[in-house]
Amino acid sequence: MRAARTTPAFPDLEGKHPCFSTTAEGHAKAARLHLPVAPGCNIDCAFCRRDFNRVEQRPGVAARLLSPDDAVAATGRALRIVPNLAVVGIAGPGDPLASDHAIETFSRIHALWPALTLCVSTNGLMLPERVDELAAAGVTTLTVTVNAVDPEIQARVTPKIAWKRKRVNGVEAARRLIDNQLAGIARAEKLGFTIKINTVLIPTVNDHHIGEVAKTVAEAGARMINIIPLIPEGRLAHLGEPDFIARHKARAAAGKHLTVFTHCQRCRADAVGTPGLTDFTRELYGDDIRAE
Ligand code: SF4
Ligand code: SF4
Q1: Which residue's CA is minimally distant from atom 5 of ligand 1?
Q2: Radical SAM core domain location, by residue (predicted)?
Q3: Closest ligand 2 atom to the C-alpha of 275?
Q4: Residue 261 CB partners (closer than 8 Å, separation 6+)
Q5: What is the pTM assigned to this prediction?
């Protein structure tokens, strides 16, 4: 297993992108701004519960949506408030590639502040169609959430998707999602993206399958994997969080194929600061950020 690193996996990003830094020192250096501009999603993960509130610390949650105009203004303010801001990411609350808001936001930010690293996190359904647009908008780091590469397992995680304006269910939906994720990762690798995979570790569903996921995405072009313990929500609220041994086994299985990211804080879609260390949300948005 390659989890405990003392040397950086990505020297160009170490200390400059908290979630592509692999040493404790590197992870603590740079801040990221998550802009919650992605309104909706095109798939239906069984564990997902998107919400607007100020209190929950988990993905899929933001105080409110921002328009691209709001997001550009917030970036300008953040650059004045957050001294070590280096990365602007879009990771929700829905999927950044399910609408045009994220790519428009990235293009405008890249034109104004080209030194910022731009980062996106997607379920990958639209990646083959939109990854070239991401590259043109200045995005260089990419996270794709891949929870299974076996359609039978994936169908239990994401039982339906919206594809070409139609609803697709079950194994057929799962096969489409996996095919698009792998094709999108391969294209992104050719375009020069640095690619991380997020895999939600779901007890009794995919906990025996993590090594296969890591092997398959590594062959497609991914460089790192982040195993995220399930937060039991939605239709998987009855499952517990995976325990320490399950997490260790999953990381060991994945570490045979990829660098394992171990510092994830399971951040909100509107997080601002250095993950796990600083939080500038109130300074940035003040009273303007509230549930709607
Ligand atoms: Fe929720 Fe993300 Fe799954 Fe969409 S891709 S349903 S936002 S967890
Ligand atoms: Fe980084 Fe994890 Fe937070 Fe994403 S959720 S910004 S990978 S620490």
Answers
A1: 123
A2: 27-268
A3: 8
A4: 19, 22, 196, 224, 225, 226
A5: 0.95
Ligand 2: lining residues by beta carbon, under 6 Å: 18-19, 32, 226, 264-267, 275
Q: Which residue is associated with the tokens 């203004």?
A: 73
Q: Which residue, 205, 193, 210, is CA-closest to 256?
A: 210
What's residue 164's pLDDT?
Answer: 94
- 158 CA closest ligand 1 atom index: 3
User: Count of domains in the chain?
Assistant: 1
Distance 174 CA to ligand 2 centre (A): 25
Single out the residue of 191, 171, 261 nearest to residue 223, CA to CA.
261
124 inside domain: yes
Task: Give, using CA atoms, the residue closest to atom 7 of ligand 1.
Answer: 94
The interface predicted TM-score of the complex, written ipTM, equals 0.94
Whose CA is closest to atom 3 on ligand 1? Answer: 45
Per-residue pLDDT of 7-60, as tens digits, reads 788 989 999 999 999 888 888 999 999 999 999 999 999 999 888 888 888 888
